[in-house]
Amino acid sequence: MKKAVFYDTTLRDGMQGENIFFSIEDKLRIARRLDEAGIQYIEGGWPGSNPGAQSFFEEIKHVKLKNARIAAFGSTRRPDKTCEEDANIRALIKSEAPVVTIFGKTWDLHVESIMQNTKDENLAMIKDSVTYLLGHGREVIYDAEHFFDGYKANPEYAVKTLEAAVKGGADCLVLCDTNGGSMPCEIETATRAMVEHFKDHPQVIFGIHTHNDCAMAVANSVTAVHAGAVMVQGTINGYGERCGNADLTAIIPILSLKMNCDCISSQNLEKLLNLSRFISETANVPPNNSQPFVGRSAFAHKGGVHVSAIMKNPKAYEHMAPELVGNKRRVIVSEQSGKSNIEFKAKELGVNLGENGVNGHQIVSSIKDLEDYGYEFDAAEGSLKLIMEKLTDQFKPRFELESFRVVVEKDKEHPCYSHAMIKIRVGNTTEITSAEGDGPVSALDNALRKALATIYPQINTMHLVDFKVRVIDGKDGTAAKVRVLIESRDENGIFSTIGVSEDIIEASWQALADSFQYKLSLDNQHKAV
């Protein structure tokens, strides 16, 4: 059985991605979650490049990790300097990280044209740096930067750089596709050649570090393991410079489930989706719904034929059980849906369709009419549940709107000011409240929340987290219909609701009211009108 170990560089290489930033506190939380998920190596940053990285190493020393070893990242010594004189090397030692990963130049183009160095001095820099760091009791991982480009341009010299690292004492050589331009066939040929070349050094293992500029990072990483690499470097969600790094949320299940590698426990594999979501939320980057394995749509089914088949046997349209990575199967209801979609979704949402199935046909027809008008229920399951309850006479409204009024004021010196007055009926009681907000929807949200809070205090656990507006068809100009999608979060997760109207405030109210009705419908203890 092949073995593999995972080296996460989200906290360093991932932060080189556009709009990705983690505070010291963020990095410590992420490190804990990576460790809990069974990642073997966590790269904390380059202590010689910025004070923030050094602060992380100071703090992480006080954190007890169960599975992972912390690595500090840096470069070989500078030309014509000793390791003792080199500030970056000293910073690596000062970090007290038990693992040090250093990169060196493999491609003669970089050695001579970019660094304006000599090939021999470059080889000495690699050997000296590895030897020096090993002498200070560190585990040393050597990253051969631009290895595959260097190997294609000058294979003899590229191999010499790896030999220099081994002469220095390195036991782990990581082959890097730094520009992300290599193809799987090139990765396999070069990796196999290196494994063969160093077969007389049984202590040496190979790693792989790829970038996604040709959308090949995951494929190249998997290919390298197939060719003999053991360590796989990457980031959670593929964050990284330019087009990103290899995505560990795809590589981990591929190696574990598809290639049967000894690399991660089944219990830790089930944490993968939560790990992905946690890091995307910490980075303040929306999750990628179409992301393999951990995306919300990874096991989503829309076509009626597909849904009918998976209800009989999920293997018909799923390559694996979604629960293995902590995900779940989703059936989407839309204008392309059939009766099977409705039956599956009704069961999932807790809506009773009755014994004869007539309700299922009626719901399919109604959903298609609503989507023709502009609704889109595959993105708004909260509203879908309410619609299904209304169509089957199971809906029990927790409140009903009597009227609302929204005032927006603007003067030349101040930003827009919004004030909402709302009148609702709860049972036999009428509530009239008003509230201010940053905009008309915020004001409506605050007013409705104020009216309901004393009767349904559980709404205080619900918060609006996203608000999207889309013009459905712009040919009518300002009279065009708009679709408003609202995402809300409570202690159990995120749910979405939708509204459609020619008036953006009316559409917003529909989505907002549905979010409150859905939240309240989740608790069977709530009073119904």
Question: Could you give a quick summary of the protein structure above?
Answer:
The protein is an alpha/beta fold and 529 residues long. It has helices spanning 24-36, 51-60, 87-94, 108-114, 119-135, 147-153, 155-168, 184-197, 217-226, 248-258, 266-269, 272-282, 304-312, 339-349, 358-373, 381-391, 440-452, 504-521, and strands spanning 5-8, 41-45, 69-75, 99-105, 139-145, 172-177, 205-210, 231-234, 300-301, 330-331, 400-409, 417-426, 429-437, 463-471, 482-490, 493-501. It has three domains: 5-264, Aldolase class I (TIM Barrel, Alpha-Beta Barrel); 300-391, no CATH class; 400-521, Double Stranded RNA Binding Domain, CATH 3.30.160.270.
- Note the beta-strand portion: 15-25%
Major sheet details: 8 strands, parallel, barrel
- The average pLDDT score comes to 90
The first-level CATH class of the largest domain is given as: Alpha Beta
Q: What is the topology, as strand order, of the major beta sheet? A: 1-2-3-4-5-6-7-8
User: How many individual helices?
Assistant: 18
* Gross morphology: elongated
Find the structural class using helix and strand composition. alpha/beta
Domains (count): 3
Low-confidence stretches: 525-529
Oligomer: single chain
CATH architecture name of the largest domain: Alpha-Beta Barrel
Structural Rg: 28 Å
Percent of residues in helical segments? 25-40%
Q: What is the tally of beta strands?
A: 16
- Terminal CA distance reads 62 Å
CATH fold annotation of the largest domain: TIM Barrel
CATH superfamily of the largest domain: Aldolase class I
